[in-house]
Protein 1
Amino acid sequence: MYILQKLMNRLIVLNKFGIFSFTFFIVIFSSVVMHLIEPKTFPKWFDALWYVMTTVTTVGYGDYYPVSTAGRIYAIFIFLIGIGIAGLAIGKLVEALGAHRKRKEEGRLTFKGRNHFVIIGWSEKAKYAVSEIIETHPNLEVVLIDNLTITPITHQNVHYIQGDPSIEETLIQANLKEAKSVLVFSDDSIHDSALADGKTLLIVTSVERLTPHIHSTVEIKKEEHIKNFRHAKVDEFVLSHETVSRMAVRSAFSKGITEIYTQLLSHKEGENLFEVRKRAEWVTYKDAFDSLLQQGATLIADGNDLSINKKLNDSIPDDARLYIICSKDVYESII
């Protein structure tokens, strides 16, 4: 009994690989031994393996069992050693799964996916952004970076990375080099707009230094800071305070205009804004405008150029980024 106790104590301190390796050895070795001891009871090697597996997992169907003295003696060995080792292996497996889940929730796992969307900074705005991405692109993987001790959102396509986003190691952990786009939200806990934009600029500088090719969108508090972000080669800017204020003022003078903004900004209601590729038969903007209008869509812009109606007879460049307003059903029929 002392020997068995010493053996189990040694097994407990083994790592997971050692436990699984030893369990595999015991199962295979016992299957071979039982097949050799009782070839009539276990005519096939798989029959012996079936018996050993049902025994060590305490299932015990009773369809196979040893009848000779030698077979029963070895079966006692399986009872004493095999069941304990199998239980230990199962316990280690459950422990490993629990540890993996804990590391995932704490954001300590490295993301290995590609063409994902990275969001830096958790807030209510980030929450709505994640919800919008999941709603419009259900297959897109999202990686969230923040300093929270545990993930603020649980979804199969959302992966959390805990760390300082201005540090290169954190961005590498999020696999930023193979990401499709990055969205940086301003830190709402910083009430000074200059300090908040300064922190955002530090983060986006690290992002652009590591992955200069990535498409970056940044939330900025003060409009006069845009020139600093342009110097950092940021692609898109969102002015949080100014945008809300201007929308409020316009709604005061033009009743119902906020409904238009809401429809264009959200994919959950009304007409939406979509991007379409140029077709071979669309030579001029008028060709595209008329064709899309017949299908129920309105062409409004090429990139950030909203003056489509002033150049309908101009040729459409091959790299044009055409934006239309239509319902989701119409968009899906167009693409």
Note: The longest helix spans residues 69-105.
Protein 2
Amino acid sequence: MLDNLVILQYHHVSTKTPASTSIAPEKFAEHLAYLYRHYTVVDLFDAIKALRAGNSLPDKAVAITFDDGFDNILLNAHPLLQKYNFPYTIFINPQRIDKDRNQLTWDEVKQMAQENVRFANHTLDHLHLLNREYHNGEKESDAQWLTRIMYNIDQAETLIETQLGYSLQFLAYPYGEFDTFLAQHLEQQGYIGFAQHSGAVFSGSNFSALPRFPAAGRYANINTLKVKLNSLAMPVLDTNIHSPVVSEEGFPSTLKLTVAAADLNMNAMNCFFQGHLQDKKTIENLVEVSLPESFPLGRSRMNCTAPSKTQKGRFYWFSQPFFKANENQVFPD
């Protein structure tokens, strides 16, 4: 038993959808066969409940998730998942269900809900949560923004509960975007947040923005996925990054992480920004990593890994996401 969970994120299972968010059915079948042989696939809701209660999970526990509620999940993924009796969770936009051509219908959702599938919140309509709206040329205030965003999220939760009879209060952030203020407010309202930066989860994780490993598109390669499936949640005690939203002034020039280092080989820790190895220095259980002078627009991340001292071949993994708006303060797709 172990205090560790890896969450996989998929979108499309098809060869006819955008390559960046798709995995071919044959490749998806390869993933599932590997999981069946080497891992324990667990229900996301049960796993999160166990971790929050301080209970251990089976070693090499993995949860499977999908974002957006596409109909090819039912057509191409669901039969494969049923073959292994794997539970999984789909984060849906209720306003799109039964309306958009490539989406599931509510009848299909209700049928799948009887077949080892849970459904959770991905907002009503997949909006950029961090974007501000303008009314009569005036930018909405922070209070107006939060009211609008929370209404959207709560309405989506209500629609799911009305259709399915339950409310998980799980929210997958569209585009993986969030800021600390929103995440903390959602946590106060009883929600658990799921993002799109990578890494494993443990009982000490930030449950307002849990990491998930993308496993489609350029991340579908089974050999690189094996390393991620074998990862351990890095026990970060403190960080100097208080919000993932990159500001023009006053944003830190380094990432500082304080970790519980008993089982980490600190000297072998490496950190990569957008895949590029970064300069770092370590002092006991503190690592300091250089951040870029200029961040790219949109979404980026710093991934840090360190080998375990006691579990051969396994790496602790931490990911810090960053979100940068364009000159008009709009976060791009």
Note: The helical segments are 25-38, 44-52, 71-83, 106-112, 142-164, 180-188, 222-229.
Protein 3
Amino acid sequence: MDFQPVERASEAFQQSVTAQEIAEICRRAFGPEAVPVSAVELGTGMYNNVYCVALAGRAEPVILRVAPEEGRQFRSERHLMRNEYAAQPWLAVIAPLMPRVLAADWSHEVIGRDWMIQTCLDGVPAPERLGAYPRTQWSAFFGQMGAIARSVHHVRGPHFGPVGGPGHGTWSEAVIASLEEIAADLDGAGLDAGDVRKVAAVAAHGRAALDEVTEPRLLTGDLWTVNALLDPKAPEPVITGVLDFDRAWFGDPAADWTIRMATAKQDERTAFWETYGAVDRSPAAVWRAGIYEARHLAAIRLERHRLGKADAVRESYDTLAGVLAALA
């Protein structure tokens, strides 16, 4: 097999599997005669290890995604791949844009990590292609993103919280539980989590405003440009695929990462709202948005720590302090 892993330091969070393990995974998924001829690790992701695998006798390559070992997963990020698998039927509204799951294994009988094999979608990552178009055409891309987000947010769920559970009966319970899990992860990483616990306390005090959200809607988790594929030959940006819904959960659409990014700048992305529609700007909704922003910042701090970005971790405290002050 032509095996091309990404070279990383021994202390890096992401650690590649071996060529032999990939061969064993392919035999488990496709039968004892399956022979992988090449496996190239894709270095775009920051959590799972992702490989493009070509198999003898199979016309199209497949995508193998391998989760971190359970002992390396944060509490707030535990079993994200299983959560994405559970979300698949709920995401049927955008199924034509998504890879199909060909095999998944949580048994740890082949390797000591969760893994999933999916079809390989056509297209190139949006960050690599979008810049080739004049900025006057970028609005077409963001308009498509708005339509996709609207379709997903229209789906009603059975509970609040991660799609794969644990589920909560109210939105406030789900939000506070998420903040407490992130705080516990920060504690475990040796970082100060006092400000995140203050956010949880503010959320608990204002739970009535959170619980104005009574209908759980499906949230993408972190859909934005990095998780979109574009047609490499189209004369204007055309989204051909969307990826990575491992953080999908049920709740208030305003809490979705997609909404945060759409509101971050007043530039070409304003076309997002032309297809998505207007959002609630009531005082309660604005207050909830502050809680959601604080939660995003807390999760970003944890990710920056995982990636070894110490300066960015330090900067996060001042940023979150500003959000907390506005919530007071």
Note: DSSP finds eleven helices and twelve strands in the chain.
